[in-house]
Amino acid sequence: MKLILTEDVPNLGSLGDTIDVKSGYGRNYLLPKGIALLATGRVSKELQHRIQHLNKLREGKIELAHEQAEKLKTVKIEVVRKSGPGGRLFGSVTNRDLKELLKEKEFDVERRSIQLNSPIRNIGLHEFTVRVHSEVSVNMQIKVTGDSDESAVKTAAVDEPKDKITDEKNVDSEELEELEELEKLEELEKLEELEKLEELEEHETDE
Known about the structure:
This protein has 207 residues and is α+β, with helices and mostly antiparallel strands. The chain has helices spanning 23-30, 45-73, 95-104, 149-206, and strands at residues 2-5, 18-20, 36-38, 77-82, 88-93, 114-115, 120-122, 124-133, 136-147.
């Protein structure tokens, strides 16, 4: 069954395109929904007029799509995700996430219009494509930054022994000072005892 699309249909065609589909799909879905018009047989003046109108609409949509594509080129997208060793993400970034991130930038794009080769599972810059129109696409980038708790743990683990070593050094120096003072006191006591003994000996000698 040959039909003319009255609007863009993903994976099928753009507004004004003549397509060939199965009769059931055309009669039960496309025609009742007003998505397509019959294009078989002799084309009537009404249909020709309709096609011209559709072509104008199509040109207008393409122009708007180019304008939106230019705006999208200026958009910078960044996201932070939990990551592990080597920048591996806990989870992934999908076209569903990209849709929400674009929505935050005030761009309402269909999820199926976002083309991502595979889910993003590592930190860094990654490319994807937004199909604004069947004839207009724009290449974009997303920067994925890792939020690693492990790095904080490692830092704490490295810093802690340093603190302990510093404390131990401080304790050792204090103990050394105390020992030196004790040794001095002991030496003084010994000297005092020696002096007393000498005095006693002299006293005995005099007697």
